Amino acid sequence: MENNNSAPNITTVNVRQTQVQNDNKCPSCGATLAYDPLTGNLVCNFCGTSVRFDSAYAEPELGYTLTELQNIAGKNIWQTTSKLITCGSCGGQFVADPSSISGLCPFCGSNSVTQSDVNGTPEPTGVVPFAIDKASAQVMLKQWLSQCRNVAADVAQNTQFSDLEGVYVPYWIFSCDTTASYKGQFGINRGCGEDSYVEWHKSSGVTSHRFKDLTVIASNRLANDYYWKNISSFNFDFAQKFNPNLLAGFWAESYSIDGTQAWQTAMNKIYETIKEDIKAREIADHVDKLEMNPSASNVHAKYVLAPIWITSFKYKNKIYRTLINGQTGKISGDWPRRFPKALLIVLIIVLAYIGLMLTGGLLSCVVAALGA
Predict the structure, then answer these.
(1) What is the DSSP string of 4-67?
(2) Which among 28, 113, 135, 255 has most CB atoms closer than 10 A?
């Protein structure tokens, strides 16, 4: 039986934060600007004006310590003119420019949304910007739908597509150094077949490991979402330093899993990795009575936003939901399916055969009754 161990000791490090404000107004006509993934500029959808802004890759050392994450509760450190949108239907919370939101929840489509000032939300340390614009995402969606297996033949003609919503989803990304002393019993498989057995030996030692970019989704709504898991691979090396301009025209979901909760999830991953490292170190096939005393230092917790497109479409009074990775273009969702002709033919044959058998059995009973 393996022993459970307490969370490791934490050594904190200094971090830096940035705070940027922008009203996202077009200098030509005063309309709201939106971030354009194709040019990397702010673009006015009304008059076409394009505005450049400074951007840079997120600095590797930028992040929060766990102590800071615990102490920022209730503090408004995300300096922005945006509003916090709360959905009364699914409970989702999103940050958005009040002049650019549609008034509908991007996840469930409900119009039961309320606005309040952003408060108590830590500033992201990085943003993976959208690499795919809305027009491209719409084309990709139609192509994907046409290639889906057993898709209904008339889906293109009888489908009502709702507008795609661009949403930044929250991630916690952890890096740390770990050291773990251990002792336990380790077994190696010997022999084969009926002569196989496990040879056990006791051992102890110390192992060290550097963990980099352990990602934990910070949204309870997405943590167990099947479609989300299919598209949730992002290259965080392309994350840019947080700038509200990158969020202009999009929603940004507020985290529902805070940094300290996410750290416990990360620690479970770290713990399992250390166990596997010890198992490989001891060249063991089995581990028993393992005792570990892990500790972590130089812990960085990054709060990064990653892009997805969300849409739903209606086909014959049923709603189908689809997610598109805004960086890679990978798509996952549901679609209307038609019953395959081959299976239909087989089903007809089987039913016909059953009908003949039942009919033949009935005739036999009638003949037997008449004979009697």
Answers:
(1) P-PPPPB--------------B-TTT-PBEEE-TTTSSEEETTT--EE-----BPPTT--B-HH
(2) 255
